[in-house]
Amino acid sequence: MEPLPRMSPTLSLCVYCGSRPGTDPAYRHAAEAVGTLIGRSGWQLVYGGGRAGLMGLVADAALAAGARVVGVIPSTLMERELGHGGLHELHVVETMHERKQMMAERSDAFVALPGGIGTFEELFEVWTWRQLGYHDKPVGLLNVRGYYDPLLDFLRQTEQAGFVNSAQRELLQVDTDPTALLERLGTLARQASAPDDYRRI
Ligand code: AMP
């Protein structure tokens, strides 16, 4: 059955993930699962706007499942990350800062999938913005096949060493299961969307 087009998404989820596919097929499957869940949930996907790597797989799976998809890409990366021609909106911006700001403003929740340093940077930025109170949107990490285990161990170590506290750490929602994680982010995003202190980024 053809997916129904969703004209009014109920929630906008920003996905950060690799511009490469990674070596383990589990990463690709997880990216497709997240895209499909976004479509089936009637949500909108906001992402980096490319067709490269996991980014392209999330977008294509979301489109196939009927999601509205918004991409934001700096003009300098149009070639390298293969700007996606089939999105509902593709914003070509001048700088990486504009990209990240627009992605954050257009989203109600954030999730990072496996990726490289670009993904880490995006995740840490939006997590630190959250702890500073610049926004109140939930932030998640999908730990596919233990990819982020060493990072999670390190984060525990940062707590023991006294540089991060448990409240900051608990702002990051971690799960190995895409369905469970997206459900949790959806619930938290709806709780967070109280009128006044919303969209402060
Ligand atoms: P990567 O995880 O390195 O494959 O990159 C994933 C995405 O993050 C790509 O769309 C990159 O363009 C983007 N990216 C790379 N560097 C940065 C950065 N400094 N800030 C935000 N995003 C970045």
Q: Can you tell me about this structure?
A:
The protein has 201 residues and is an alpha/beta fold. Helix content is 42%, strand content 16%. It has 7 helices and 7 strands; from the N terminus they run βαβαββαβαβααβα. A 7-stranded parallel sheet has the order 4-3-2-1-5-6-7, sandwiched between helices. Helix 1 links the parallel strand 1 (12-16) and strand 2. The termini are far apart. The structure holds adenosine monophosphate. Residues 18-20, 48, 50, 77, 81, 96, 100, 115-119, 121-122 line the site of adenosine monophosphate (AMP). Adenosine monophosphate (AMP) binds next to helix 3 and helix 4.
Layout of helices and strands, plus pairs?
Blueprint: E1 12-16, H1 25-40, E2 44-47, H2 53-64, E3 68-74, E4 89-93, H3 96-105, E5 109-112, H4 117-131, E6 139-142, H5 149-160, H6 166-170, E7 172-175, H7 178-192
Parallel strand pairs: 1-2, 1-5, 2-3, 3-4, 5-6, 6-7
